[in-house]
């Protein structure tokens, strides 16, 4: 059974012969009641503080859980971002390599084409120079040959030679000093 301050102060004790002194008992009861009242107040304050601390502890645990979740989420996001950035970087490097290889291949093909074109031009020039030499030699023979009818044969030979080699340098079918037919 719990006794309160008012229980102590309102309780009446029976009196008997040779009992306790009523003034002393009343003083002790008042003192006990005051102590009981003070202790009840302290207990209530302590219970209030415990409840407050438990509430604070719950809040701190909730905050801790939230912070832990946030940290885990942040770490996951950072990990994902790093992986995505690494993947994108690898893809960019691969694409750059493919483009560089394609440009290199295109440049190599173009260079080979230009080399082939240059070689064809050199061969064409050599053929042209040879045709010019042959033509000049044929004309020199014509000029140096006596006019015994063989000159006409040399002229025909010169024309035939020029025709086999793609025509003369002027692009026509006549020789110098002769009118086109």
UniProtKB/TrEMBL annotation:
Keywords: Cell cycle, Cell division, Coiled coil, Cytoplasm. GO terms for biological process: cell division. Residues 147-156 have a biased composition (Basic and acidic residues). It holds the Pfam family DivIVA. Its main location: cytoplasm. Residues 29-70, 111-145 form a coiled coil. The keyword Membrane does not apply. Residues 147-181 are annotated as: Disordered. It is found in: Cytoplasm. Residues 171-181 have a biased composition (Low complexity). Belongs to the DivIVA family. This is Cell division initiation protein diviva.
